[in-house]
Design a protein that fits this description.
By secondary structure, the chain is of the alpha/beta class. It has helices at 78-90, 95-106, 112-128, 131-140, 194-200, 230-241, 250-271, 279-300, 312-322, 324-327, 341-346, 361-375, 380-386, and strands spanning 51-53, 60-62, 144-151, 153-154, 172-177, 184-189, 207-210, 225-228, 354-355. The chain has a five-stranded mixed β-sheet. It is extended, with a radius of gyration of 29 Å.
Length: 387
């Protein structure tokens, strides 16, 4: 595109309709442009399977087809399996729509049943190969993990195998991930009860970033430390600032400001490869936090509230005081992120998914596909494992 005030248009060969006053201009090098695209070609490989008849009993023995093929039928190869699995399990596209999209993009008609079977086949192979144990072992070696859970819709609630009664609570998907999302592990939970969450995280002893759920406090004895997600704290503070009256709840805005300043200071210390924050700066930030929290508690302790329990400003102030060391852990352990929001994002697809008996297999496949993506492995690896 020409710059403002420039008389030249898009460069064209001398004498062509696009030029204006450049007929005798000297060459000044060249630029370039690229157009990337893909070519989709249908490929059919047919195997001839010879048969031999036994001269004694007359039994005919036919050669076995190679892996991924079935004698006397048409099978789909790794790339179509990849498309089906990634659309249904990683993109959360319903099987019928996934089959339709494959037909539209690849001009290869497949059925919704094929999409379901591809996912079930891969999930079974991952389970047989010990995928969950391998993921648990890999995550156990990490110094820092983030965890979050999200409710999901289910076709049928889980029942107790002993009594047949419905398990109390809402079904959940829990995500456990490394800060850089190199590893992301999604697990199904029958409910958000504390014993289920603590049992799932029993393997880990490092730093854990959580969203404030009280059940995680039961893990404090085994963990190196707990970091409360500061983004969740900020969202709670924003909710309180809107309550008023007037600017009385501005203390919550001060909490947001000081936490963001602390995060900026940590990022600068990391960029300079400093082992710790300046002690004076940290003490100053923490003092401002403590003073704001004390103000919020004092001025909301007896404040009228139409809802149940204490005023939200008082409840938040008490929580911030009680968990202050966990809110500020990222300022003393610089390898710890200040938020678990990426873990929350990993479960966002589950909030509008509907899980049936086979739907929970998406968790294991999603974890595998995410690991392939973060490691740079080709997506075809998913299809090769399922074909």
């Amino acid at each position: 595109m020409p710059r403002s005030g420039c008389g030249a248009r898009t460069a064209s060969p001398a004498g062509s309709p696009g030029t204006r006053g450049l007929g005798g201009a000297a060459g000044a090098g060249a630029s370039w442009a690229q157009v990337w695209d893909v070519k989709i070609l249908r490929q059919v490989t047919e195997y001839l399977l010879p048969g031999l008849r036994c001269p004694c009993c007359g039994t005919v023995t036919t050669a076995a087809p190679p892996a991924g093929a079935q004698a006397g039928s048409v099978s789909y190869g790794p790339l179509l399996n990849t498309a089906a699995i990634l659309l249904a399990c990683y993109g959360n596209v319903p099987p019928e729509r996934a089959a339709q999209v494959i037909g539209m993009l690849l001009r290869m008609p497949v059925s919704a049943g094929f999409v379901d079977k591809a996912a079930a086949r891969l999930d079974g192979r991952l389970e047989d190969a010990g995928f969950d144990d391998a993921m648990r072992g890999a995550l156990a070696e990490e110094p820092v993990l983030a965890a979050d859970e999200s409710p999901v819709n289910v076709l049928a609630p889980e029942t107790d195998p002993g009594t047949g009664e419905v398990v109390p609570g809402a079904a959940q998907v829990m995500v456990i991930r490394t800060p850089a999302e190199r590893l992301v592990w999604l697990r199904a939970l029958a409910s958000r009860r504390a014993e289920g969450i603590t049992a799932l995280l029993a393997f880990f002893t490092g730093f854990l970033i959580v969203d404030g759920y009280s059940a995680c406090q039961q893990l404090s004895g085994q963990l190196a430390g707990i970091q409360q997600c500061c983004q969740h704290v900020i969202r709670r503070c924003r909710a309180v600032t809107r309550l008023g009256p007037g600017s009385l709840q501005s203390w919550a805005t001060d909490i947001i400001t000081v936490l963001r300043e602390a995060h900026q200071a940590v990022e600068e210390a990391r960029s300079r490869e400093q082992p710790a924050l300046d002690a004076g700066l940290l003490a100053s930030l923490r003092q401002r936090y403590d003073e704001a929290v004390a103000f919020g508690i004092t001025h909301n302790r007896l404040r009228d509230w139409d809802g149940d329990g204490n005023h939200p400003g008082y409840a938040l102030g008490c929580w911030l005081r009680e968990h202050a060391d966990q809110v500020w852990l990222f300022t003393t352990a610089l390898q710890v992120e200040w938020t678990s929001d990426l873990a929350s994002h990993c479960t966002s697809w589950a909030r509008w998914a509907v899980f049936g008996l086979a739907g929970w297999s998406r968790c294991r496949i999603w974890s595998m596909a995410g690991a392939c993506d973060s490691s740079g492995a080709p997506g075809g690896a998913v299809g090769i494992a399922a074909a």
